[in-house]
Design a protein that fits this description.
single chain, 118 residues, alpha+beta, three-stranded antiparallel sheet, 4 helices, 3 strands, 17% strand
């Protein structure tokens, strides 16, 4: 298995349609699905293009061989989303919303009668 380099990290970010947020030592690649951020990983900003990015696999919930396959374009975003659902990292599509159960109205209290003084 080859090391994940900066170029491959950028390929993975592009494939997963990540939004890149500039940072200090790392840019942050944030991956969203259905409006929610589901994963993120850092991409080193240094000039060393061969610097390893081995931590990415764990941050996107893949094994190192799976991450290598993604870097080599053998896994699509849809495949990755399906894997995340299978692993329980993303909830399956929610069922149609059901109306909340109706609450029975509390019984009406009858007015109290006052006792006459004796």
């Amino acid at each position: 298995m080859a090391r994940i380099t900066k170029a491959e990290a950028l390929k993975i970010a592009k494939k997963l349609e990540a939004v890149i947020k500039p940072g200090g030592a790392h840019d942050l690649a944030q991956i969203h699905h259905e409006g929610k951020r589901i994963a993120q990983f850092g991409i080193r900003r240094g000039s060393n293009q061969d610097a390893p990015h081995e931590y990415i696999a764990g941050q996107i919930n893949l094994s190192k061989p799976e991450c290598d396959k993604m870097a080599r374009c053998l896994v699509s975003r849809d495949d990755w989303i399906a894997q995340m659902k299978a692993k329980g990292h993303i909830a399956d599509d929610p069922p149609a919303a059901e109306p909340p159960p109706s609450q029975p109205e509390p019984p009406q209290k009858s007015p109290r009668r006052r006792r006459k003084p004796r």
